[in-house]
Amino acid sequence: MEKSKIEIPKQLESLLGQPSLLEGEDREAYLALRSAVIEDRQPKTVMDWIHVHDLVTQLWEEQRFRRASAAIIRGGMLAALEYYLEEIDTSREEIDRSSDFPDFSGGFKNYARQYFSANPKERKEVISLLAQYGITPSELLAKAAQLESNGVLMFERLVTSRANGRRMLRKEAERYAGSRDHDDLAEE
To answer: What is the DSSP string of 50-102?
Structure first.
């Protein structure tokens, strides 16, 4: 995205401050978002600039919370794998205990970690075992989401809060712009 031709006025830079970025967040992506919103909103007054700043902050935080929610689910994958491996181990019959069946004596966690292995053979072994029992990657993600539901719900509430905040900001900006236009007409 090309940089907006409209820049934040120098006298407002200190008022609005630097972007509140966390470690690992992309400053260039933030600035691209800010430029796009500036280009779209074409702020002119101090209040316009404050609305743009607040809107960009809300959008950025909303995306941050969505990334965090997805990370929580990814973080729950190990526990989901352990859950299914234990289910597989306890549900299989003695007849199933063939020599090619994995040895869980090192624990379910150690075997589950192979799912994340850089070694394709180890990863394939776990995926193949899960597939034998009809457990798909989607089911793993669903179980991980269920196991991490408190954290996911917390971030979903935060996303909803930011989205509601954006709607309120938009309405306030529209009211402000409408009253400013009305004042301009009254002066003519």
So the answer is: HHHHHHHHHHHHHHHHHHHHHHHHHHTHHHHHHHHHHHHHHHS-GGG--TTS-
Quote the tokens at residue 48: 């316009």
For residues 55 and 146, what is the distance between their CA atoms, to the nearest angstrom? Answer: 32
- Whole-angstrom Cα distance, residue 60 to residue 65? 9
DSSP string, 104-119: -TT-HHHHHHGGG-SS
Go through the chain and tell me how many residues it has: 188
Q: How many CB atoms lie within 10 A of CB 8?
A: 16
Residue partners of 122: CB distance under 8 A and separation at least 6: 114
Dist CA 34 CA 55 (whole Å): 9
Both tokens assigned to 29: 């992506």
CA distance to 18, 22, 153, 184, per residue, from 46 (Å): 17, 27, 36, 17
pLDDT digit string, tens, across residues 87-144:
888 876 554 555 566 767 677 888 899 999 999 999 999 999 999 899 999 999 999 9
Q: Which two tokens stand for residue 152?
A: 């996911």
Angle (CA) 175 179 181, round 5°: 115
Percent pLDDT > 90 in the chain is: 52
